[in-house]
Amino acid sequence: MNQKNKHEVVNYTLGIAGFATLVALLKSVTQSKALTAMVLVGVLSVITFFYFLLNSNSV
Known about the structure:
With about 60 residues, the chain is an all-alpha fold. It has one domain. It has three helices and no strands.
């Protein structure tokens, strides 16, 4: 099996499993400092929001 076929099989498998977008994002994040910062701020914001929702005592 040549290199091109291996990449096609990997891409097809990731697409079926639903991870192709995540892999593409991680590949882009490794190449861009600005995108890395934006992803970190976004993840931190989501975690902070859910922490706030779980610890709010209002009914």
